[in-house]
Design brief:
Elements (H helix, E strand, L loop, with lengths): L1 H6 L6 H17 L3 H9 L1 H10 L8 H11 L4 H19 L7 E2 L2 E2 L2 H21 L4 H19 L7 H7 L14
Antiparallel strand pairs: 1-2
Helix pairs in contact: 2-3, 2-4, 3-5, 5-6, 6-7, 7-8
């Protein structure tokens, strides 16, 4: 069944996914079946809708599935590329409101949030190095704003806004290119 699902071009609707496909894949993933992880990653839109519909905050996400796969096959290029894309999207989201500020989740980043974003950036940098992908310009840009926003939060009384901080420190604000995976 997994081979057929992976190769299928047919459109899968939610009732079939929820009642048949997800339960089978969930069982297979619990037994560390890597092929089941690949298949479920093929249906991320359905997976996200299913988690939302079931109100599952601890359900499988694309990030959790990629992480689980890489625990067993840490050098798998396809999964490393998916990880790189997921991390990039998280990093991009954090700065997409510039020059207004840096986000952590749906809110403005705190000092702890900036630290976690810097940790995420290190994970991204490591993943890019494994893949031998040059994302140095993006990494420097994110680092500049995560460090800058952290400094801004520490010295908030000296600036009208993060935009003012950017101006006084001559920080670059640019449009980012988004990399997607399917």
């Amino acid at each position: 069944m997994l081979d057929q699902l992976k190769q299928s071009q047919a459109k899968i609707r939610m009732p079939l996914f929820a009642q048949v496909i997800y339960p089978v894949l969930e069982r297979e993933i619990a037994s560390d079946n890597l092929q089941a992880i690949q298949v479920l990653l093929h249906y991320t839109t359905l997976l996200n809708n299913y988690n939302s519909m079931q109100k599952l905050s601890d359900g499988y996400s694309a990030g959790a599935l990629v992480k689980r796969y890489l625990q067993q096959e840490p050098e798998n290029r396809e999964m490393l590329l998916k990880k790189e894309a997921l991390l990039f999207n998280d990093l991009y989201f954090a700065v997409h409101e510039l020059p207004h500020g840096v986000l952590y989740g749906m809110n403005g980043a705190t000092l702890d949030g900036c630290k976690e974003l810097l940790d995420l950036l290190e994970e991204y940098k490591s993943t890019c190095q494994k893949l031998q992908i040059d994302r140095d310009a993006d990494i420097r840009y994110y680092d500049m704003h995560f460090q800058g926003y952290q400094d801004y939060l520490l010295h908030r009384d000296l600036y009208e806004s993060y935009r003012d901080y950017i101006y006084h420190h001559n920080l670059e604000v640019q449009k980012q290119q988004i990399y997607y995976f399917s």
